[in-house]
Amino acid sequence: MNQSPGTSIWNVPNTLTALRFALSIVVFVLIPWHLYQAALVVFIIAASTDWVDGYWARRFNQTTQLGRIFDPFVDKIIICGVFIFLAAEAGSGIAAWMAVTVVAREMLVTALRGFIEQHGGDFSAKMAGKLKMVFQCIAAGASLLVLSYEARPVPDWLDWTLVIFVWLAIVSTVYSGLEYVVVAARFLRPMAAK
Question: What pTM does this model have?
Answer without folding.
Answer: 0.88
